[in-house]
């Protein structure tokens, strides 16, 4: 779950995988498109993001440039899409170049009302979701220039439809979006030397088809590898006013027919993963199931041949007794992460200390347990929780996860002032942890780094580094918020370097997901827009 929590009307507001916050008129989040980027840039690039505090309070650069230590490429995921967590398996791993820390160049680009969140594919084009400031809903999808974020073309949702934050795009330019009112939209982005256009190809009205419960809100949808579409209803329990106590999981065939299954006293609070035609979905407790020592459920669904998708397997996990301090989800706070073709991982919400859980992707023989292994999140007996998806990587027979402890992360509340204490991430328990699943099925913690990081990191196999955004904790405790892009060695867990990007609340990453572009540019979404970081001329 990439997330952020925003105080609004005495409650937190956000989305599990695409966090948005309105400052003025619109929020832009970006996902990569397929095909060659050929359209001319005619729109005016946005201005830089203003610092709202003095950035010179913190060091410009800490550490030393790294030498690239490449890792084997990540396993190929099918379907091949660009999404919030990088790919259909939510791995947040990129095989392309990324900054090593040499003569780093930092550029900021202001959003018209908030963050710009890039999800690059290898060809580098980008497609943006724009947020309506008046009601915190996404109202337009735009093609943007990957360097300047200037808008090239837009598609606006029909009147009365409020788009959800999740969007996926295939290499052929097909874009998948959904509305809270129950519509699934398939768009097509087309780029030529003359222009870029985004057109509506399909509008599937699930609400009119009667497949959704009236109390439910369509939450997200994802392509499968055979032309079908998975969808779920739901909401983030700690970040919305939703009252539904059921979840609908459904699959849409290429002809538009929908098969659904209704899950009572459960709610989807996260994104989900897809491998080939199988959807991996995690739910938290709701309704009568929401009590002390509650259980959530992890599922694998197949399309099925009848009226309902087929439950390939399901297993309960510990959802504890309540949403934890700073948390958004009543159950697991993590979007499922696929580890190659063997495992799928989430975190639970066990009281006091959460756990990292690793399951088999395929159904266990004889109806046995799907759980392969588990390990506590964080150091021994520490309070821990996780509201982010994990990095997932497989090489040489070893599956690895990188997880964060986001316990007690502050509720984002700019209404108290852009430089208010909601920026103080030093109050988080913090910690980043690498866990390996050994060939014999044991979960082993390889390292812990004490970094206090709310945002969702990403990894480059070309550099062997994990990248994320964090505030200087010592300065933050004193009320000065200087923000850095940090690079952590995947092998050792040591922080290699930190580069200052800006200061004040406009540079708060608000739980957004780092993206890595085709040319080695790192994109760090922040409240005021997006920051790009790349190696300078000395590297080239």
Automatic annotation (TrEMBL):
Q: Lineage, please?
A: Bacteria, Bacillati, Actinomycetota, Actinomycetes, Kitasatosporales
Q: What is this protein called?
A: Uncharacterized protein
Keyword list (alphabetical) reads: Signal
Where is region (Disordered) located?
A: 63-91
Q: Which residues form the signal peptide?
A: 1-38
The superkingdom of the source organism is Bacteria
Please give the organism: Streptomyces fuscichromogenes
